[in-house]
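Teaching assistant here, posting this on the class forum so everyone can see the example we discussed in section. The complex has three components, and the goal was to see what a joint structure prediction looks like when all of them are supplied at once.
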Amino acid sequence: MENMRDWEKKTLLDELTQGRELARQLEIYLNVPSSSVEAREFLVQKIKSAFEKALAMCGISVPVGEPEPSHPTGHPIPFSESPPSVSRSPRREESDREGTSRKRETLPRWLKRIQVSSAMGLGDIPPEDGYSWRKYGQKEILGSKYPRGYYRCIHKYIQGCRALKQVQRSNEDPTVLEIVYRGIHTCGHGSSVFLPSGSQEIQEPHRNTVSQQQQLQQQQSEEVLLNFWEGRGVPSENLDFPQHSLVPSLQFPSTSNIGADLNQVSSASLIDNYCSMSPSRMNIFGVNQNLPSSESQISEIISADATSTANSRTVGLEFPFEPDEFDPNFTFDHPGS
DNA sequence: CGCATTTGACCACC
DNA sequence: GGTGGTCAAATGCG
């Protein structure tokens, strides 16, 4: 441990921080009697995974008894049995480690389209959204006129926050920025990015207690849901994730109270509009999505967007699998209720 | 000089 | 092999 390099310490810290945050989430779930067993079990798995990785980094082997079918990040445990060979470049060594791997993470993601004042002149500086981001890359995308910028939360290394976002100008309308958010902030920083302005005050000028942390977790969860629910986005038909299937828009009855009404939004009204859907049960922002395939992660949702009129909500959902795999019972759960 | 951004290279995934 | 996501050295900026 004493000869551990800085990046190793950072990665270890990441894992431990992640484990702590997940434990806090689990604590919240345990205090909510109606929360699903699956969600709790999923969190337990993730906590175990985080600590097993941390232990592995300390050179302590992980028991193989319990299989870990799908690692949350899709990464293998980042340790080679043999010392790195001399021929390998330092860069490659580092890229093999958890936290610095180039392997793509399977994080929940959702699209936000934002109108900016002009196509030119503004550069590609994304509008302020309440969080602090650091740009870590830019890429020309095939078939796109404009490059895609890659941003990570600035608290990634300090607090292990894995939130990312990608910003790109729309091909059709350069005054529209398409922002793909990936992952949920676990850093507790930032403001109510997804909340309508003025609807919620900014948090925490002071150190957080455990209960404040819980509130933050809860609030962040609600932000994601609210973003999904009230987003001023486009119908799903216009979303552009060609590699995945897209579920047609669904209409809901109007609702004024998110938490309460979401539980009632369930099957009936949805099935009326789209019969061949869908997963039996889904937590939009939590951790539970029971699917026939036994997959159970929010990351299965590629994007979610919504528009609203006086009498209805139109919600577009995109999943990385075919709609006809779904069974017809489809409900939204509000994890906090 | 320190920090943020840019940019070419690397690499996983399809 | 092509594409997109990430890394990290180089560069720019305050």
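For the discussion questions: Chain A has seven helices and eleven strands. Residues 1-5, 32-36, 61-99, 191-337 of chain A have pLDDT under 50 and may be disordered. Think about how each of these relates to the inputs above.
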